[in-house]
Amino acid sequence: MKLTVIIPVFNEENTISELIEKVKLAKLPEYLSREIIVVDDGSGDRTAKKIKKISGVRFFAHKKNYGKGAAIKTAMSKARGDIVLIQDADLEYDPSDYKRLIAPILKKEAEVVYGSRFKNLKFALVGKNKTPLPFHFVGNKVLTALTNLLYGSKLTDMETCYKVFKKVIVSPEEIKADRFDFEPEFTAKVLKKGIKIVEVPITVSPRSYSEGKKITWRDGLIAIKVLLRESFGK
């Protein structure tokens, strides 16, 4: 049995080497092998050069920037694993969570698992436990609530990067989204198939816009459009 770790990247020269090393070191059950697929989505920095120097990675490159969703779909089409895990390259998400993320699938308790940043988190604007990037927290809560309303799910973090699923669940050809709208469309496609999404709590180290965070409020509006389209469209 094999796990495919998909890493879409765009201008991540400062983190990609460390991230891949962490992915390689992430503990998995002995009977589960791994492959790492990295897709460079038209980076303008040294990301591609750094990846090419790293062994044990299947590397693919887009000639220009098509978007995160496009990079994920390219990787999905190349995946050889039975289970697919999507990993961001910015060190916000910790590969040490892999064992917890894949456990429900290996135990045949789930076919799709999301790593939730908010399952055990309470919103706070001040204090030691202040919620990082509160605008994003609220925006994600709105999108997640809309997802639950439209599809009858009980998610806490629809927009999470950590989406783990059996490869046969959704094919890349089913997904139209090329950018950050991949998250809501993938979620909608899964739920429309009647497949329950199981969530497990994860730990994250959120980065700021100055550190390279790319998603904006415009992406939130697009996500709403996608959720409505998938719910009421054909």
Written overview of the protein:
The chain has 234 residues and is an alpha/beta fold. It has one domain (2-232): Spore Coat Polysaccharide Biosynthesis Protein SpsA, Chain A (Alpha-Beta Complex). A seven-stranded mixed sheet has the order 3-2-1-4-6-5-7, sandwiched between helices. The chain is globular. The chain has helices at 16-25, 47-52, 68-78, 98-106, 134-151, 182-192, 217-232, and strands at 2-9, 33-41, 58-62, 83-86, 112-116, 163-166, 197-201. Strand 1, helix 1 (16-25) and strand 2 form a beta-alpha-beta unit.
Characteristics:
Glyco_trans_2-like; Spore Coat Polysaccharide Biosynthesis Protein SpsA, Chain A; 234 residues; globular; 35% helix; 7-stranded mixed beta sheet; Glycosyltransferase_2; single chain; alpha/beta; 7 helices; Nucleotide-diphossugar_trans; Glycosyltransferase 2-like domain-containing protein
- The percent range for strand residues is 15-25%
Largest sheet: 7 strands, mixed
Number of helices: 7
Which structural class should the secondary elements be placed in?
alpha/beta
Could you state the order of secondary-structure elements as H and E? EHEHEHEHEHEHEH
Summed over residues and divided by their number, the pLDDT gives a mean of: 91
From the coordinates shown, what is the CATH architecture?
Alpha-Beta Complex
* The CATH H-level homologous superfamily: Spore Coat Polysaccharide Biosynthesis Protein SpsA, Chain A
Overall 3D shape: globular
Number of domains: 1
What is the end-to-end distance?
35 Å
Strand order of the largest sheet: 3-2-1-4-6-5-7
Domain Glycosyltransferase 2-like: 4-148
Protein name: Glycosyltransferase 2-like domain-containing protein
Organism: Candidatus Woesebacteria bacterium RIFCSPHIGHO2_12_FULL_41_24
InterPro entries: Glyco_trans_2-like, Glycosyltransferase_2, Nucleotide-diphossugar_trans
